[in-house]
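Example 3.2
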Amino acid sequence: MKKIIALFITSTLLISCGEKVKKSSLEELNTQKTTLISKIDSLSIQLKTIESEISKLDDSKKLQIVTTLPVKNGTFKHYLVVQGVVLAEKNIELRPELGGTVIAIYVKEGQRVTAGQTLVQLDDSSIKNSIDELNTQLTLAITTFERQERLWNQKIGSEMQFLQAKAQKESLENNLATLKTQAKKMKISAPFSGIIDEIFPRNGELTNPQMPIVRLLNLDNVYVEADVTETYLPVLKVGTETVVNFPSIHKKIESKVAQIGNYINPDNRSFKTRINLSNKDQSIKPNLLADIKFLDFKADGVIIPSTIVQQDQNGNNYVFTIKTENGEHTVVKNIITAAKEYNNEIYVSEGLAENDTIVNEGARQVQAGEIVKINAN
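Structure, written as C-alpha cells:
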C-alpha cells in the first residue's frame, strides 16, 4: 500500500511538472504548487490512517517490545560526600614537668585506669631528703617563733627578734610546700579515666619534659572532622543530617553536624565541620578515615531512574511515557526538569505526573508516536 501511494504521488508530480511550465505565469505556478501541496497533505493523512488500520488488523507486524515503570512519588535526598578523619579530645601524651629517672611503672599497655591513678614514678629521693631536712629546720623555727611570740606578748625582747623568727618559720614553710609540690610532679598520674595505649620509657631511663611517657586514651566519645569547600556554607548548618561510613571497619552511623567552622582556609578555600559520635564499643579509633555524607537537598516528589533520562538536540531532558487508547500503546515524549541527581536516581520537579507510566527497557529504541507492545514480565 505504501508503495502504491508513493508511486501515485510521484506520478502526480511528474505529470504536473510536465504541463506547460515554460508558458505559465508566476501566479499560475504558485497556484499549481498550492494544489500539489494540498494533494500531498491529503494523501499523507490517508496514508497514516491506512497504516493505523493495517497495524490493528495485521497480526504479523512486529511491534517494538518495551517494559514500563510507574512514576514513583517519594522523598528524594541528595548528599554531599567528603572524606574526614576521626579525632578524640581525650587522646593525650603525658609528659613530666620535671626531669628524672623512671624507677617504677605501675601500669601496662592496654590497661584501663581511673582519674588520679599513679601511672609512673620518677626518682624523687633527693627531693625527699630535702623535705626531711626542711622539716627538721622548720621544727626548730616553729619552736623559736613560739618562744619569741610569747616573749613579745609579754613585752619582753625586741620586735625585730620576733619578726625574724616569724619570717624564718614562714620561709621554711613555703620552701617545704614547694618541695612537696615538686615531689608530686615526680608522679605521673592519669588526668582522666581511660586506656593506656602506649608506654614510652623503660625502668631506669632518664626522662625530661620534652619526652612523652604515656599515651592515654578515652574513646567513649569521639568526633569526625572534615574540610568542606566554601561553596556549601549556605547549605550546611549545625544540625544538618549526616551519614558517617567507616569502610575499614564496615560501620555506618547516622548523626548530625555539631559545629561549623568560622574560618575559611585560604589555601584550599574550605571550612571545618565537626560531627560528634558515641563510641561505647571502642571500635572507632583516632585517625580512622571516614566517608561523610552531608544532606544538602531534600524534597518530596517524583523520583525516576537516571538511566532512562535522555537529552534531545536542544539540550532538553526527556523521557518516554505510554498513552493507551483502544488497546494501543503509543509512545509520548515528555520534556522534564531534572532538579537533582543522586545514587542513580533523579528528582523530577516538572514534566511528569503521579499516574504516568514510563518506558523503561527499550526506551532508546523507540520514537515519539510509535505504537509498541508492553512486556508484562
